Amino acid sequence: MNNIRNFSIIAHIDHGKSTLADRLIQYTGTCDERNFQDQILDNMDIERERGITIKSNAISLPYRAQDGKDYMLNLIDTPGHVDFSYEVSRSLASCEGVLLVIDAAQGVQAQTLANFYLALEHNLEIIPVINKIDLPSADIERVLEEIDSELGIDPEIHIKCSAKEGIGIEEILEAIVKRIPPPKGNPDQPLAALIFDAHYDSFRGTIIHCRIFDGTVKSGDVIKFMSNDAIYRVEEVGHFKLTRVKRDKLSAGEVGYLIAGVKTVSDVRTGDTITLQDRPCLQPLPGFKEIKPVVFASIYPIASDDYQDLADSLEKYKLNDASFIFEKDSSAALGQGFRCGFLGLLHLDVVQERLEREFDLSIILSVPSVRYRFTLKDGRTVYVDNPTHYPSPTEILKSEEPYIRANMMLPERYLGAVMKLCMDKRGTNSNISYTGPGRIELSFEMPLAEVIYDFYDRFKSVTQGYGSFDYDLIDYRESNLVLMDILVNGEKVDALSQIVHRDRARSRALLACERLKEEIPRQMFKIAIQGAIGSEIIARSTISPYRKDVTAKCYGGDITRKRKLLEKQKAGKKRMKMIGSVSIPQSAFLAVLKSDTD
Amino acid sequence: MLMQNEKAGLYIHIPFCLSKCAYCSFYSLASVGLIPEYIEALKKEIHHYREIFSEFDTIYFGGGTPSLLNPKQIKDILSTIYQTYKIDPQSEITLEINPGDASFEYLHALRDIGIRRVNIGVQSFDDKLLKLLGRRHSGEDALGSVDHVRKAGFENWGMDMLYGVHGQSIKQWQKELLNAVNLQPPHLSCYQLSLDPQVPLRRTYASKGWLLPGENKQRSFFFMTAETLREAGYMHYEVSNFAKGEFLQSKHNRKYWHHVPYLGVGPSANSFFQNRRWWNKADLKAYLQDIFNGIMPILNREKLDKEKLQLETLFLGFRTQEGIDLWKYEKMFGTDLFQEKKTVIHSLIKKKFLVLENGFLKPTLRGMAIADSLALI
Fold first, then answer.
1. CA A51 distance to own-chain centroid
2. What's the pLDDT tens digit per position in B17-48?
3. Of A161, A117, A163, which Cα lies nearest the Cα of A140?
4. A491: domain CATH number?
5. Domain at B8-257: CATH code
6. Does B240 reach chain A within 8 Å, measured CB to CB?
């Protein structure tokens, strides 16, 4: 166990986390040059393109240190967005230390701080790594000052490197060995293993990623998930290299995988503790939370013929995303579809993109909503996450919406701006504490609906990215809610309806009308877009029709060209949904909810 | 499968000009040295297609500037055509002329060799505009050419006008238009200026920060043009084409809009036959080289499947006053357009974009203005 180090790399976006990971993998010879594909850990297209890590990933690096001993360095990658902050925390809980990568030119940035706080929370050994020192714009002195003043850690302990040029890699590996403590734990104690991730393999089923804290697990063992007492027999255990490498057993301190005939990823809960059925540990490892979707939206196929394809694709998608849920749904305007639950708006974006990309589907998303609670006059209590099921206003006795407690860490200089933002978002019960020189921890209670709407983007923008943000659901509170509908040429588009606070209704309706005006292409008729509460119109906009689009000349040589142009437009139109006589593009549905600060 | 009873048209491209006009995107060279050689090549190409085409009832010399050919040269080409194909005695035989070339003697000679219709590229009577457009003639020349056309005895003739040029107000254009109407041309084409990517005038516009008229202004130009000419007794039979009567429409041009077969010869010319379309290289040197090497100078070809033909039928049909013949459409495509798109067609009729008349779905003026969108119903 003394030869094991479990660590993670954390960094602000684009500071070179993935490149550094690649270099460490290359240096330790985990994969040969031929098979090397840059940024191995981010293996989904979307992750590469957006530069964010959505699913965490792990890899074991064998390393012979300068002391002559062989070490097993387990690199656990972490996702990088608040929607996935729970996954991050479970990944960090599996480590004893982190490399905090800082760009030599940009210095300490928002997520540097946010991630630093997270690492502190988990009591991890932090090794600051100044990356990109080969850049002409590198200013190492300044970065060192920032490390001292912003992070409050001794700048002396930093390592300079250029992941791109391969400079400083060995020094980093040595620091991992020397500074990060080896894992503690006892292989003879009852098994306690933390699940920090899982993925689906079409041949083997669910592959569980875990960190063993105590005890030992081997194939043939009967294991138990402590959150739900589910029992499985272990088929295989092993380490992550670039591929899975089977081992006899996994023991305390190790990171690896476990295959146990678990059918889908959703049967596995990140953060859960695995133990042995016949010799269970006394209590589960701390920090487990059941993660529940908080944002709901419906997905419809653009062509109704694609409904079955969509159903199949959602099933397949779900195999690999435990936090995604769905059930059948139907809309008067959009036909048959599915109501889905997400962790947040980014999660929703990711799901939409993956469905379109990996499954080649054209889909429409309805306006996302949180789950509201209504007490009706007949005494019943109903939960509504779909505006279509909004109860008749005359029957509602009490409306309630979910509240969260937002926890934010930020440099003191942004306090005023963040306070104002939180109040704008109907925040109450603020609490401020100073956690270090110039550093503030701020908490607020806010309606979840405000947070999913555009809070995170605006928070990042007012703190210029230096703030970190996390939230927990706390309770339901009474609220003055209304159902706001959107009408296109007098026809209600139920997928665009939103449940909103009455004070917000008008501004939301105006924004929706404006957004739709931008997104819906001009057509042959004038299009009226209206926002309404019941029969009361509270906002409107108009799209003027085409007035002239015919070209002057169309003779022999022009016909093919013109036809090709129209074919393109026609194909574009196929990706739109007809509501009455108006073609509404897919983008319009999501645009309605996007922040007005973009 | 289309319009088999209608005879094919023959288009002859003359890719020579004395000078290039600033707005024109048709293929031509500003030199005339290769004309004799070109005529020999043309004759070979015309001859080649005797296997596919057998009879024409329209012949159209376009360009470029066909009036740069002398009557002997034109006669030479016509002789080859007559020797190779059956030519309907009622054929429309058109030649485009530049006002700068339209002497009485020339026009008279054209009549003698069998040209029956001329189309004069007037564009404008305003010398300032003509200069901006890079035309080599004056407004005065235009008036003279009309006079010569008449005196030479042409009864079927037309002129081309251009509008929406920078600095031209709707009022100014109306004045020009009325000048044109006063000359009583049996046929008038009025084209709104557009700037294809490669034309020099586009660079002029860009460098001076000029813009083409916006959509609303374009619409006003278009409506005013149509209303003025309709009042003056012209049939508005296609977006940009007006004629004093059905028999004075361009028989040749309407073939393009109704999928009637046509053969185009010369560089950049397009041909259409049995749902296939092909077009020649837009390069005189390459054209000559191919022809004299015994191969056809075809750049590319396409086969139109049902879907493509349907789309073309719609966007071409909605450009014409005649509209879409629903009965023929059903016969051709096996679907009843009216039934298939009932809701949207009904609302387009209600909103006065279309009218249904004797089994034809016809665009109104409002409809014609948005023919491209109408095609996407």
1. 12
2. 999 999 999 999 999 999 999 999 999 999 99
3. A161
4. 3.30.70.2570
5. 3.20.20.70
6. yes
